[in-house]
Amino acid sequence: MKQKKKYNDDFKKTIVELYHTGSSVSALSSEYGVSEVTIYKWIKALTPISEETESLTPKDIAAIQKENLRMKQEIEILKKAMAIFAKK
Q: In a designed cystine with 60, which of 7, 14, 56, 78 is the match (CB 3.0 to 4.6 A)?
């Protein structure tokens, strides 16, 4: 079974930056030994959605959504706890 390589976020961002500055995906794939499919996934995940000063990538949005869900769950727990203590 082929072992899956792990790449750190800095490496992924560097590859995406190289792509955005004009390097082709096939050239990056050959030079860095990363499959073209993987590079396209990184480009999709790490390319900012808007070009404003505060741009978000799909990865950023997923992290925000995860944090939002966690906070909503905490609020529900706190509401229940307040109801229990209010009865005492």
A: 56
Provide φ and ψ at 2, rounded to 5°.
Answer: -75, 130
- CA separation (Å) from 86 to 24, 53, 56, 67? 63, 46, 41, 28
Report the C-alpha gap between 61 and 25 in whole angstroms.
25
Average pLDDT, the chain: 89
Look up the pTM and report it. 0.59
Compute the distance between CA of residue 75 and CA of residue 49 in angstroms, rounded to an integer.
Answer: 30
Ordered alpha helix ranges (H), 7-57: 9-20, 25-32, 36-46
Q: Euclidean distance between the first and final Cα of the chain, in Å?
A: 60
Tokens 């955005």 correspond to what residue? 20
